[in-house]
Amino acid sequence: MVLDADIKAQLEQYLQLLEGDVVLKVSAGTDAVSNDMLALADEIAGMSSRISVERTQLPRTPSFSVNRVGEDTGVTFAGVPLGHEFTSLVLALLQVSGRAPKVDQSVIDQIKGISGEYHFESFISLTCHNCPDVVQALNLMSILNPGITHTMIDGAAFKDEAESREVMAVPTVFLNREFFGSGRMTIEEILAKIGSGPDVSELTNKDPYDVLIVGGGPAGASAAIYAARKGIRTGIVAERFGGQVMDTLGIENFISVKYTEGPKLVASLEEHVKQYGVDVMKLQRAKRLEKKDLIEVELESGAVLKSKTVIISTGARWRNVGVPGEIEFKNKGVAYCPHCDGPLFTGKDVAVIGGGNSGVEAAIDLAGIVKHVTVLEFMPELKADAVLQKRLYSLPNVTVLKNVQTKEITGTDKVDGITCVDRETGSEHHIELQGVFVQIGLVPNTDWLADTVERTRFGEIVVDSHGATSIPGVFAAGDCTNSPYKQIVISMGSGATAALGAFDYLIRN
């Protein structure tokens, strides 16, 4: 049995929702992955009379496709889709059977309107929490449009192919055998990249809002819910809903929830926001803010949104080291997510830059996968919690270098080493390795504001106890502000505070 009892019980409930017959066409050999794939297919088929299994020959072995009877939907899994990809398999079964997807009708119309041949391949890791969004988006596009196909490829099962195509980060997507993109992408982002995005004129022609929230992370979602519950016209404009929480794996300090994962929390936030009729505008990056009779927010797309009040909740992003080689070798050995990209460095030597909690946690996780981990810390001592340091120092394949400054990440077509300088002696060292994971904190996404609002020397927006900024009617919340602690629960609280502050401002003005 491939599935444990709890997962099998849940799957049996989902399979009751199948609306039509589904055929799993399996291309298997005699290897262990093929045996697991056949066992999984047979086990699933045994749970529903609507599912059957056929043996066939596909371009990759082991792999299997999910089809309607007599029809090729273009959805293929090369590898055994367990781990984070199990949900992708369940959704593929339901959607191929005819069950309607939970996406906006405008998105469905965009997909169906695409003309031409689009053959997508996505290289993923079963431990990657960002990969399922890409896999599920491309699967849905294949199901809805006969000109689109998608094959999910487990990089661990097809390691030679991943290396030959220089895949060093997941998810990595190819379109018609050419590199398309790397990293988490929503279905809206994928559509925009192939030229099927939203109409800018529709944004410019929107009526003014009472509250416009810029940024869709926990602070923005909280602000939207609190504002909308007051019965006022509320909008959210964001590059992507969820912000950096989408890149977070385990969350164990969200009060009342013992454990959850970033994408799961974000899905719940978005569902909650939409219950209140909030106008959510994705794939839009703010460019300029100006206060006139109304407050105007200009977007990089050229659209201009107007509102009586604005709440800025643009969050933060990973801080770069800022050394030669970092940008050049991003996704070519330089990575920022050990959970996602770690499996691609199995048996190799890697470095982690940063000795705080994030860096030490990354090193501990990687030590169980890679050959050796070198931790580089700028300060004389690590900054991580004592319990994490104790665990780190107990690992036999970890070296900790303290009081060192990273000088350069070296390589030709991909990373081959890192050069660092001992800050006490000035001596320079070069370490041969194949991967570098950067974990040195966050920088606020406030560059677009320039001098319009007061910011600290670190770029954080200065707010008062009501979330108000230096501009009347403009509020801010979350990791982009001068709040001393950057935590999800604190961001949500500050979002609520900013929304209540904005509502109070509207009453008084």
Short description:
The chain has three domains: 5-193, 3-Layer(aba) Sandwich (Glutaredoxin), CATH 3.40.30; 200-317 and 443-508, FAD/NAD(P)-binding domain (3-Layer(bba) Sandwich), CATH 3.50.50; 334-438, FAD/NAD(P)-binding domain, CATH 3.50.50.60. Helices cover 28% and strands 27% of the residues.
Number of strands: 27
Overall tally of domains: 3
Overall pLDDT level: 94
Based on the coordinates given, report the CATH architecture of the largest domain: 3-Layer(aba) Sandwich
Query: Which term fits the overall shape?
Result: globular
Q: Would you write up a description of this structure?
A:
The protein has 509 residues and is an alpha/beta fold. It contains 14 helices and 27 strands. The protein has an eight-stranded mixed sheet with strand order 2-1-3-4-6-5-7-8, with helices on one face. Strands 9, 10, 13, 14, 15, 16 and 27 form a seven-stranded mixed sheet that branches. The longest helix has 21 residues, at 488-508.
Please give a handful of descriptors for the protein shown.
FAD/NAD(P)-binding domain, Glutaredoxin, seven-stranded mixed β-sheet, alpha/beta, eight-stranded mixed β-sheet, 509 residues, single chain, globular, 28% helix, 27 strands
Draw up the topology in text.
Layout lengths: L4 H11 L6 E6 L4 H14 L5 E5 L7 E6 L2 E8 L7 H11 L8 H8 L5 E7 L6 H14 L3 E7 L4 H6 L7 E4 L2 E5 L4 H7 L6 H5 L4 E6 L3 H11 L5 E4 L12 E2 L8 E2 H13 L4 E3 L4 E6 L3 E5 L4 E9 L3 E3 L15 E2 L2 H4 L7 E5 L3 H11 L4 E6 L8 H8 L4 E5 L1 E8 L3 E8 L5 E5 L2 E4 L3 E3 L29 E3 L11 H21 L1
Parallel strand pairs: 1-2, 4-6, 5-6, 9-10, 9-16, 10-13, 16-27, 18-25, 19-20, 19-25, 20-21
Antiparallel strand pairs: 1-3, 3-4, 5-7, 7-8, 11-12, 14-15, 15-16, 17-26, 22-23, 23-24
